[in-house]
Amino acid sequence: MNKVSSIIDQVSKRKTLAIISHPDAGKTTLTEKLLLFGGAIREAGMVKGKKNSKFATSDWMEIEKQRGISVTSSVMEFDYNDYRINILDTPGHEDFSEDTYRTLTAADSAVMLIDGAKGVEAQTKKLFEVCSQRGIPIFTMINKMDRETRDPFDLLEELEEILGMRSYPMNWPIGSGSDFQGIYDRKHQHVEIYDASNPNKVKIYPVSDIEGADLTELLGEAAHQRLVEEVSLLDVAGDPYDEEKILNGDLTPTFFGSAISNFGVQSFLEHFLFMAPAPVGRVSSEGYVDPSNKDFSGFIFKIQANMNPAHRDRIAFLRICSGKFERGMSVKHPRMKKSIKLSQPQQFLAQERNIIQEAYAGDIIGLFDPGIFQIGDTLCGGKEFTYSEMPLFSPEHFSRVSIKNALKKKHFLKGLQQLTEEGTVQFFESTSGLDEMILGVVGELQFEVFEYRMQHEYGVDMTLQRLPYQLARWIEGDSYKPALFQASNAKPVKDKQGRHVMLFENEYSLRWAQERYPDLKFHSQSNFSPSKNS
Asked: Is the pTM of this model over 0.85?
């Protein structure tokens, strides 16, 4: 087998996904059950709170262990049925960060987990919008069916009303809560029976005729009749299965199950592996780059300092986009205009690391960073090029920052540089002539993470003064002058790259500016395309 054929074969076996959900929908539990199936862990650790001594495999930072939540985005990989699966585990806490949004840019598909009792919640909607903008396939799992839930048809209707996405149920629940008996697999035409006393032992019954008497005997007359009526309604009035729409992100395959009981998870995983795309190509400064291209390339989407506090290390997470990675290879670093040797590539199971010898498109690897990487950097082995700029997303919370001890300013600036490069916070400077430093975050918890890490990792105490702004918009237009907004409550600032940004208190203030200055464009992301208003 030649090199290109080998690369194509390896890439076809990769699936790189992110799991998105609202807090408490069961994302950490689902992640761990998937890892169990892949043999990556032997026992799932439940996160129940601060006092629990057992923590989720995907949560490793000290502040996460104290709170029992996921703050950073972990990366995990495992093998199942000859597939290599890379899971990008995004924080589900309501005070999540921009790191969550950026992690989604490294995924080829998303698994959207929904609590069957609560339906589509605010955090899910935010994360869905980022996935939808990229047009990646979204697979939905409606969780906690062994508890009391809302009507399945109501949940599907909510997907369409709130998210604007049609659905195709791959399976259908038979009851819920104390009446939950299992699921009917529409594609494979079998029933999987749920046993509350032993959820791991799933009994599968082939169904040759869904109206047959054998199902009445198995489920009981009332449950069987309801299943027949509901599946018939789906067949007649529901959306047809359409692979093209699924891959374009216009139709979401939907599954029902219970992650905590491990029921329906394996069935979901096997369907997902069959339907989800292999790694997809990316747009670069030299055009489209195919994953099967023989030349190695990838981009940095996450940087995490001090993963091991004893060693003060800094790891850059790289999504491989094409070719084959080999340990010790030399690659081009276009931004730095130099070649570098990648000698200690690592793959992760949360805080556990393994040095790897090779990896392919779709894989996520960690690179030791002596301070030469930034989020969005491209690395390439052949012709030099860069992938599209990694966007900054509009923060929703802002604070003025000052240090308590002026002698610590050097340490503060070092910490600020590293934490802004990691994407923990965004940094803005006032254009009003005052020496004013402003931090912006997507989720307010990031202020607490920033303070915690500055104190414990850099020895700096500081004061954060909350500001009344809720939106940041990058400004495009030759007529822009900060003085235009003196009469308004908006605040003109510059970002770290010197780009003009305006901070607004609310949507009303933003609309006022848009109407008053129609020749200016206000973008919610930093990597806007010229003349494309957001």
From this structure: no
